Amino acid sequence: MIKVGIPRALLYYQYYPMWKTFFEELGAEVVVSPPTTQAILSSGSSRVVAETCLPVKAFCGHVLALAGECDYLFIPAIRSVKSRIYNCSKFLGLPDMTKAVTPESPPILDIDIDINQGKRELYQAIYKLGRRFTWNPLKVRQAAIAAWQAHLKYMQLMSDQDLNPLQAIERISNTTEVEPETPPDNPTPPQATIALIGHPYLLYDEHINHRLIHRLEKAHYKVLTPEMLTAEELESATARLVGGAYWTYEEEVVGAGGHYLESGADGVIGIMAFGCGPDSLMMDIVHRRAARLRTTPFMSLTLEEHTAEAGVATRLEAFLDMIQRRKRRQAEVCV
Ligand code: SF4
Question: Which of 123, 147, 165, 299 has a C-alpha 20 to 30 A away from that of 309?
Answer without folding.
Answer: 165
